Amino acid sequence: MNGKGKYILVAIGLIILGLMVWYFSNIVAYILISVVLSFIGRPVVDFLNKVKIKKWTCPPALSAGVTLILLWFVMVMFFRTFIPMVAAQAQELSTIDVNAAAHSLEEPIKNLETLIAKYSAEGDDFNLKAVVIDNFTSFVKISDVSSIFGSLAGTLGNIFIALFSISFITFFFLKDSSLFTGGVVLMVPAKHEEGVRHVLDSIKNLLMRYFVGLFFEVILVGFLVTIGLSIVGLPFGTAVVIGLFAGMMNVIPYIGPIIGATFGMIIGIATNIHADFYTEILPLLGYMALVFACVQVIDNILFQPLIYSNSVNAHPLEIFIVIIMAGSMAGIIGMMLAIPFYTILRVIAKEFFNQYRFVKKLTQNI
């Protein structure tokens, strides 16, 4: 077969593979989630495998089973602890009288309308009150607990299948760390097997450090925000909900903290809507902004350098450029997936294209 025919076969194979991934997207998602969970649980499995009592050593299946149970225990306790708080906060928001709330904020809204009209290009009046009512009404409707849990109940069967599938796949990935590698190696020519194995091992080690670090970053950021907001006067349940959201949004590099802080400010206003704006709400917002700023400084100085730089061995400026490019191409999802995909590309480039000076410079720390 000539070279042109080989390229055509490769192209057809890639198209068929892409169609299969699209058609079985749910299964692919289960496998990817299982891979991430196995990365997080791998340190526990390695520790249990080293346990030795006299002549008895912990079997790999037992280590994997205990780790899987521990992972699900942590997640169940997480949801059992925080879901009631989130539901209570949502119920409280759903009872807010939006028109009355807008009336209590009428004076600062008029001042903002005057300021906007003053600097407006056309000089037209701007009805900020109507905008606030419309947007706040939409926000409160999102907090309708009955509709949220009703939609969850309708998909309970699919959720059970997903949880069982992810648990089953994760168990075997924890039990045999080379299982995923072996499956990928089967799809490449024998002459490239050694290189592909080396690539997959490097990717596994780098991403394991990244996801474990990211997991602890979410917990630490959420904890610090919760403690800080409790200190400045928010009820503990409200502070926990805001801290939980801020921690999860922090997974999105750079823009995530802004989303978390904005959500926190909205909740802060909503839960104190009947208080005086200038003497109570405005100082509270200032203290909340200070809390978010302090947590972000701590995150930038301590947490993120360890996760985004050291875990994937890349320069912070390099990471920043990659994240911005991913965000421009695929939005928030792209920003979330930028670092893992960039890590994979760097490892592949080092293994197969290291003869180029640019690639050698870019991957010298891997």
From TrEMBL:
<feature type="transmembrane region" description="Helical">
    <location>
        <begin position="148"/>
        <end position="174"/>
    </location>
</feature>
<dbReference type="Pfam" id="PF01594">
    <property type="entry name" value="AI-2E_transport"/>
</dbReference>
<feature type="transmembrane region" description="Helical">
    <location>
        <begin position="7"/>
        <end position="24"/>
    </location>
</feature>
<feature type="transmembrane region" description="Helical">
    <location>
        <begin position="285"/>
        <end position="307"/>
    </location>
</feature>
<dbReference type="GO" id="GO:0005886">
    <property type="term" value="C:plasma membrane"/>
</dbReference>
<keyword id="KW-1003">Cell membrane</keyword>
<keyword id="KW-0813">Transport</keyword>
<protein>
    <submittedName>
        <fullName>AI-2E family transporter</fullName>
    </submittedName>
</protein>
<feature type="transmembrane region" description="Helical">
    <location>
        <begin position="319"/>
        <end position="345"/>
    </location>
</feature>
<keyword id="KW-0472">Membrane</keyword>
<feature type="transmembrane region" description="Helical">
    <location>
        <begin position="251"/>
        <end position="273"/>
    </location>
</feature>
<comment type="similarity">
    <text>Belongs to the autoinducer-2 exporter (AI-2E) (TC 2.A.86) family.</text>
</comment>
<feature type="transmembrane region" description="Helical">
    <location>
        <begin position="61"/>
        <end position="83"/>
    </location>
</feature>
<feature type="transmembrane region" description="Helical">
    <location>
        <begin position="214"/>
        <end position="245"/>
    </location>
</feature>
<keyword id="KW-0812">Transmembrane</keyword>
<dbReference type="InterPro" id="IPR002549">
    <property type="entry name" value="AI-2E-like"/>
</dbReference>
<feature type="transmembrane region" description="Helical">
    <location>
        <begin position="30"/>
        <end position="49"/>
    </location>
</feature>
<keyword id="KW-1133">Transmembrane helix</keyword>
